Each structure stands twice: as structure tokens, then as C-alpha cells.
Request: fold
Amino acid sequence: MASIITVNLPQHSYDIMIVPGSLGRLGEYMANLKLGNKVLLISNPIIFKHYGQKVINSLESEGFKVAHQILPAGEQYKNPNSIQKIYDVALANHLERSSTMIALGGGVIGDMTGFASATWLRGIHFIQVPTSLLAMVDAAIGGKTGVNHVQGKNLIGAFHQPDLVLIDPYILRTLPSREFRAGMAEIIKYGIIWDTELFARLEKSKNLSQLWHIKSELMDFILQYSCQAKVDIVSKDEKETGLRTILNYGHTIGHAVESLTGYTQLTHGEATAIGMFAAGEIAIKLGMWTKENSQRQNALIEKAGLKTKLPDSLNISKIIDALQKDKKVKEGKVRFILPTQIGGVEITDRVPTTAIYEVLSSMRTRD
Amino acid sequence: MASIITVNLPQHSYDIMIVPGSLGRLGEYMANLKLGNKVLLISNPIIFKHYGQKVINSLESEGFKVAHQILPAGEQYKNPNSIQKIYDVALANHLERSSTMIALGGGVIGDMTGFASATWLRGIHFIQVPTSLLAMVDAAIGGKTGVNHVQGKNLIGAFHQPDLVLIDPYILRTLPSREFRAGMAEIIKYGIIWDTELFARLEKSKNLSQLWHIKSELMDFILQYSCQAKVDIVSKDEKETGLRTILNYGHTIGHAVESLTGYTQLTHGEATAIGMFAAGEIAIKLGMWTKENSQRQNALIEKAGLKTKLPDSLNISKIIDALQKDKKVKEGKVRFILPTQIGGVEITDRVPTTAIYEVLSSMRTRD
Ligand SMILES: NC(=O)c1ccc[n+]([C@@H]2O[C@H](COP(=O)([O-])OP(=O)(O)OC[C@H]3O[C@@H](n4cnc5c(N)ncnc54)[C@H](O)[C@@H]3O)[C@@H](O)[C@H]2O)c1
Ligand SMILES: NC(=O)c1ccc[n+]([C@@H]2O[C@H](COP(=O)([O-])OP(=O)(O)OC[C@H]3O[C@@H](n4cnc5c(N)ncnc54)[C@H](O)[C@@H]3O)[C@@H](O)[C@H]2O)c1
Ligand SMILES: [Zn+2]
Ligand SMILES: [Zn+2]
Reply:
């Protein structure tokens, strides 16, 4: 099965192609785009070892001149220094305005390659080949690119749209299960905030925690509907002035939990799962949605092998302090995205601190 | 006299205000734009000493919270390291999406502040207060921002449009004459490539080499018509895919001469003057324009106190080599912008190397 989602933006259009086994055909697809013949491939050592040569062969067989730069794996390398390294190889290989940078990796490689391509010669072509589930359904779509400042995540960046996003679900076979679940958290999120059909299909599946529990048709369906959800939302709000906020569902408390545990103890998806659970409980308390819907959400989180209890180490007042410091706070009020139905959320800054406190207290493993 | 040029781009509009004595009213103008109340002012030590406090007072009296960052003067500091310093103060002062960075300086400060504002939080507001003549009529307009890579000028950058360009001609009083003439070279360029009326007014003036030789009404006229010329050209070609190329008139040979003399011996304007003279001579040789028009151009160059002879140190074959290496070269052919009339140029890659050689030879001071 192959599906193509065409993203139409006011100044630019591109395709998201979801095609099993397509990695070795990247060269062909690229040739169709009529871009210049110089290509710079960016990856990390693990991913390059699995897939790098295949991509290079495919590109070279179509006549592209391919240089590559391998950056160390890990969020801690998503910084200006890595961007400088990309610039250096771009220069050494005489990349021109017509040239293309290709990201072969998860969100970290995608965000960095996107930013380097946004700023080299004030913007060159850019192709995303996401290799993690999270990158496929989330990071590779929407045009946000960037790196971290030592003191804060994603503070430096640019909007820059790709010319192609190529998703080959087979690549997921080598993805560690914990990373798979991180992507699944975002997929469940799309079910809650946007797409009832996606939610229903997830409910029908017995297990969502690892790739081999999921039939390949279902996996294709999940990828297609998730990408479509993200495309729908970001296309309506390209520069993040309104609607895009709903993508932060589960991320308000999620981010606080992530940062308080130093971004190491939990994956982003594990923190998001905790955040979605908490948002559901808060919404029940405010009379915005039903216990039954909340249980349906939480059943998916569980099937994805994600936990909903707070890590023991966390102090609840500290979480509440961290919420206040979040960059999404306006005039001291924490903005929550709360569910009102399956497939629908509301944005509100009227959540009483006592409600947050009570919900978080109920999420401790011990009392 | 005050004039306002409104720049209408598909996704953004802003004003260029040319108002003598307006520097102390920046706060008022900014208040009208309804931007957030946090401001980061970027300048260099010389300019900040003259004008920094005046700008800060004006902003603070309108309730803005102003932080500032002073970067060392000079093209050699237009690099990623200076951008990192801007990020650091942006973080320390909690700049938000609604906040504004203000460039108070020449093109160097303008390009860097523009790039930092383009990439901090993926783009925040940006105001240009150009203080050099070149920045007023050229660098501050068009949305090109960026810094240099150690191995090449302006290789790193982004397109980012300002929310306001405030031009106070009085600021030019402290500008060194050599820098004034650098700006005048670009103004003469606009006369040749675009605007016959501007050209005619320049012809009527006795001396164009220093501010105090020019009546203030004429100076206002020059600023207004030059800004309008740049706006016309860049608005028709926001992302530099075609028409903008004509802005490189005089810059083909100019750049070669600049880089071969290490960017220190000549100002950019001095190199451009040499380049415009050479382009005129080449155009005559190719039968594209008349000796008479060429002499009219060269008379302006002379009135601006700019020279048209090559520096003694330069070897002509080296200039021709450098032309071949220029980034504007496509498939080994040097692209020239050549005049065909006063107010009109053509782009051509069919200039025989012998013609370039002969013209450059005639421009030596000794034989
Ligand atoms: N731009 C956006 O809109 C956006 C959205 C969400 C997240 N992000 C960013 O994305 C990043 C997180 O992305 P991520 O979760 O993909 O992290 P990641 O890129 O660090 O990848 C996670 C891990 O999985 C490994 N990996 C990836 N694909 C693999 C494969 N096929 N086989 C084997 N190993 C593989 C990586 O080497 C890494 O160790 C964060 O930096 C986040 O800020 C960006
Ligand atoms: N973005 C664009 O479209 C664009 C276009 C042309 C040039 N540029 C860039 O602009 C830069 C050149 O700009 P520039 O010529 O303004 O150089 P600059 O910024 O270095 O200024 C020239 C000198 O004049 C001094 N100065 C400026 N204003 C002054 C004032 N009012 N009083 C006293 N001293 C003053 C500065 O301190 C500096 O020493 C280059 O980096 C070039 O790449 C950009
Ligand atoms: Zn997320
Ligand atoms: Zn110039």
C-alpha cells in the first residue's frame, strides 16, 4: 500500500509519501523533483550504519553527487555547534541554492538538517527521511526546524518547509521499542484532539506497544491518518498563531515532568502520556468531558505500554512551579488544552491550581 | 519633510519612514505598531555612544522594557559567534514571540540583528534603524539578513522582513566621509539600473562626496528615491529568483576587486565604483550603450569622490580568475549586468573574456 498526502501551503507545496520499502527509491523520487544535483545527507552513526549506504546508492544511481555528514546521536548534540559542522561540509562541497540537504534520522537529525538548510545561502532545498515513529508522524511535518540553546529547548530555529517527506515504514523495524512508544503517544494524541476514525482504529488493535504487534495494514493506516492530522492542523496555521496550540495536548504537564526529570529519565512520549492522563482528569473535574471517554483514552495509553503514574522522585509543588515558568504562559496564567470529546479539545487558561494539585496528587504511586 | 514608503509583500507589510530628527521618536512609532513591550537593542560602541541613550530614552518613555547588547564594530565580527551573544541576552531578558530586536547601526549590525531576530524563537519582530548611508538605502531594505562563514561572505542567513525601517538623515552627520561615499556608490547604481529621475537630480548637484555639500532637501529626495528603487526591485522578487540580480550592477568586478584586496584596502563602495566604470566600458565595447551615457555615469562617480582606476597591487589575470569563482557563475559563465541606457540594464553571460581583459587593462594607473 502506498499513500501520498499533498501539502498545499500558500507559497509552497510538497508531498508526504508513505510507501513501504521505498527507501531505496529515494533517488528516483528526487529526480522527479528536478532539484540540483548536489546533495548533502545528514545522519547519526546508528541510523547511517543501517540505512546510509542504501540511500547513497539510490541517489548516486540517479546521478546525484552525494556528500554526507554524520553527527553524534542525542538531543544534547542538537545545538549551534552541530549546525556549524553542517555549514562546513556544505561549504567544502560547494552546495548551491539549487542543492538539497537530506535528513536521514529521527527528530533530532530532522530539526538540525532543516535549520541548516533554512539558513545556508538563506535557504536551500530540504528532504526529510524520518526514521523514528515520532519523526514520521510529528517532527518531519510542519516546517518547524531548529536547535537548542544551552539554557532552553528549541529556542533557535526557523520555519522551513521540505520539498519531500519520504516515509518508509520498514525502517521502523530497527527502532528501539521505547522510541516506538514515544511516537505512539503522539498518535494517540491525534486521536483525542482531531480524528475519531484514527481513535477507533487504535481501539480495535490489541497491542500498540511494539511494531511487531501491529499488522502492517494497520501501521500504514496509522501513519497515514496521523500525518494527515498533523498536516490538517499545521496547514490551517502555518506560523503557529492559533490552532497549532492544540498539538500541545498532554504537553503542558508533560513538559514540566520532562524538564524536572532532566530529560533523561523519561522519553518525551512517556512524559506526554502522563500529561494526557492528567489533562483528562482535569477535564473531568471541570465537567468538560466524561469519565467514560477518559477511560477510553487511558486504555489506549496502556495498550501502548505507557505509564500514567508520576515518577516517585517528583514533588508536586515543583511541577506546579514549572508550569508557571513554561514559555506558553501568558500573564501568569497556565494555558491548558483539555479534551471535550474523542476528537475535540478546548484551550483554556481557567484551570484552578487546586484542580491541578488534586489531579497530580492522585497520580503518585505512593501517598 | 517626511516621507513614508509602504512596502507591501504578500504576507507582510511595513513602512520605511524617512523623517529628519526622528530618532528620538522611535518609541512613539513603535508604540503605534502594537508590538510586545520587551525590546533588545543591538549596536556597536561608536554608534551606541552617539545615539544609544537617545533611543533608549525614547523607548522607555513609551513604556518599553529595553535591554541592549553592544557588539564590536567591523565586518570581521559579522559571524555566528556574535549571533550567539545576541541569543544569550535574548534569553537572559526573556524575549518572547511578541518582543522586538532593534538594529541601531550600519549594514553589519542590521544584518546580524535581522538574522538573530529571524531565528530566535523561529522569528520575532525586528526594527531597522540604519545609521550609515549604505544601510539606509540598501542593507536595511529587502529582508536579507545573515552573517559570514569564515570562508565566505553572507553564506549563512535568512529572509526576514522588518516591522519598521526608521531613517533619520541627521544621523549621517557623524558618519565618516569614506563611509558616506560607500553609500553614494549604491545610490548612483540605482540611477543607472532603475531611476532616471534620481539620476537627473544627482547630475544637478555639484558635489556628492560629503553630506555637507548636499542640501538637505536634495538629501531627503535622494534617500526617498533610492529606498523606493530598492523597494520596487525587491518587492517584485522577494526571494531573489530573478529581477534582484540587477542590484548586482557594478558588483561583479567590484566583488572580485574587493576580495583580491582582502576587503580592507577598499570600501565596498569604492570597489563598486570601479565595477560600475568597468561595466560601462564593457557595455560600450559590446555596442550596448553609448560613450555619452558612460561619461554621464562616470561624472557622477567622480562627483562622489570615488575612483575608477584599479589599485596598483592588482593583477588582471587574478581578477579574471576571481570572476570565474564567484558564486553567481553558472556553468562556468560569468554573468554581467550591463547598462543599456540611463535607468536600464540587461543581464548577460556572453561577455568575451578578451573584452573584460581589455577594459581592465585600460583601468590600470600605469602600463
Ligand atoms: N520540528 C517539529 O515540529 C518537532 C516535533 C516534535 C519533536 N521534535 C523534535 O524531535 C526530537 C525528538 O525526535 P525523536 O524522538 O525522533 O528523537 P531522536 O531523533 O533522538 O531519535 C530517537 C532515537 O532513536 C534512534 N533511531 C531513530 N530512528 C531509528 C531507526 N530507524 N533505527 C534505529 N534507531 C533509530 C536515534 O538514533 C535516537 O537514538 C526532539 O529534538 C524534538 O524537539 C520536533
Ligand atoms: N542585507 C542586505 O541586503 C545588504 C545589502 C548591502 C550590504 N549589506 C551588508 O552591509 C554591510 C555593510 O554595511 P555598512 O557599509 O553600513 O558597514 P558598517 O555597518 O560596518 O558601517 C560602516 C562603518 O560606519 C560606522 N558608522 C555607521 N553609522 C555611523 C554613524 N551614523 N556615525 C558614525 N559612524 C557610523 C560603523 O561603526 C562602521 O565602522 C556588509 O556586511 C554587507 O554585507 C547587506
Ligand atoms: Zn510531542
Ligand atoms: Zn553593494
Summary: Residues A 44, 46-47, 50, 73, 75, 78, 105-109, 111, 131-132, 134-135, 138-139, 142, 144, 154, 171, 174-175, 179, 182 surround nicotinamide-adenine-dinucleotide (ligand 1) (CB under 6 Å). The first strand of chain A starts at residue 3 and ends at 9.
